[in-house]
Amino acid sequence: MSSQQSGFRVPRSRASQTHAAMRDEIEQAIEPILFGNMAESYAVRGRLESAFAAEVKQKYAVAVHSGTIGLFLALRACGITSGDEVITVGNSDISTTAAIRQCGAEPVLCDVLTDDYTINTELVEALLSPRTRALLPVDLYGHPANVKALRSLAQKHDLKIIEDAALATGAHDHGQPAGAFADATIFSFAPFKPLGSVGNGAMVVTNDDDIYEQLRRLTHYGHSADTTGVPSGHQHYVGEGYNVPLDGLQAAIVLTKLPYLKKWTAQRQAIAQAYHDGLKDTSARIPIFRPEASPTFRSYTICVEDQAGTYRYLRDAGIEVVLHYTPAIYKHIVYDQRPLINEQNLPVTDRLAESLICLPVTPELTKEDTRYVINKICNILK
Ligand SMILES: Cc1ncc(COP(=O)(O)O)c(C=O)c1O
After folding, report:
1. What percent of the chain has pLDDT over 90?
2. Structural contact between residues 206 and 219, judged by C-beta atoms closer than 8 angstroms
3. Mean of the pLDDT values across residues 264-290?
4. The domain 15-258 is classified under which CATH number: 3.30.1340.30, 3.55.40.10, 3.40.1390.20, 3.40.640.10?
């Protein structure tokens, strides 16, 4: 959306500006899908899967319709089912807890770190029960959760790790792309994400042959890729699945944009650095990252005392700030009847939800844009 369209002087996204600069490449990519052989629509998805798997250094990638369905499929592919418990966080989109419940499992909420808003790995062991089957850390705003620290715990207790990297395409930790320490990881391609399509989309990646096979089947009706011995022309359903692959048009757009991911991630990081430098002496609390973490920034999220007042002031000043996620997920009426386990023990998550403000980060922001945001915040948070 351009700033004129959104009505904001500093909008959350100026992706249309980037799309305009890439017009020829994008048109060339979608042309054969619209006007060529129908098979191209499937072929381009396969090419995106291969290119994305290489980008995040994983063996397999399965392109699906959204991050929401990707989380559900990843949990199912990891064997999560009725009666299981999955440890996750309460400061995420509803997709995270909903995916767990939709598998018939129960989310168990773990508190997060004040510094970077990701799961507090030191609190996880105390939440284990005989029913715990998986851990689901979230790389909120593109900040890598410390999944490496969860790995030994997962090994010790035979747990799977499903990483929600919906907002973290382009992020690294310990020198590896996000997802390196998980059994399965999802990355969203929704338009406001670091690698956005123009509709919905996501990728689920894994290094595990069995998880991949399950993911593929569940995404494509339950149809097996292995048709050995199956008479020519016959279907071969080996399970009941869904029909949720990424469509060819979105795949073509994401594939065209993928080579620019490193450059855009660096631009996001530069904007975050400008916010850091400009705001570090204000009363806002700014995020602090582990030295091994190289976040990307879906937004730059600060904490302030007067959330409502600061939000209103910045929006009135033409800055498209958002409150992701306020209220915290466990405070929504959807969970009134069946509260989420451990939701009463999340003091840091509670405080965050009441104080966070997400500042715009989009690679197209200019120095003048960030200076404008910083000046406005300095005015209100002296
Ligand atoms: C942390 C997180 N996980 C998952 C999702 C779901 O992704 P999608 O919008 O692609 O369904 C979102 C969406 O914003 C998110 O913020």
Report:
1. 95
2. no
3. 97
4. 3.40.640.10
Tell me yes or no: is domain 260-380 CATH 3.90.1150.10: yes
Q: For residue 257, what are its two tokens?
A: 């944009």
Probe ligand 1: pick from 13, 68, 299, 301, max atoms within 8 Å of CB?
A: 68
Q: How far is CA 43 from the centre of its chain?
A: 25
- Summarised one tens digit per residue, pLDDT across range 166-190 is 999 999 999 999 999 999 999 999 9
Q: Would you say 89 and 109 are in contact if contact means Cβ atoms under 8 Å apart?
A: yes
Q: Provide the 8-state DSSP code for 126.
A: G
Cβ 2 vs Cβ 14: under 8 Å:
yes
* Domain locations in the chain as residue ranges: 15-258, 260-380
**CA 366 to chain CA mean position, Å:** 25
Which among 12, 89, 112, 167 is the best mutation to test ligand 1's pocket, defined by most ligand atoms within 8 Å of the CB?
A: 167
Residue with the nearest Cα to atom 15 of ligand 1? 93
Report, in angstroms and rounded to the nearest whole number, the Rg of the chain calculated over CA atoms: 21
**Measuring CA to CA, which residue among 206, 215, 286 is closest to residue 246?**
215
Alpha-carbon torsion angle 183, 330, 201, 299, nearest 10: -100
pLDDT digits (tens, 9 = 90+) for 63-97: 999 999 999 999 999 999 999 999 999 999 999 99
Closest ligand 1 atom to Cα of 140: 1
Using alpha carbons only, what angle is made at residue 272 by residues 267 and 274, rounded to the nearest 5 degrees? 95
Residue nearest to atom 7 of ligand 1 (CA): 67
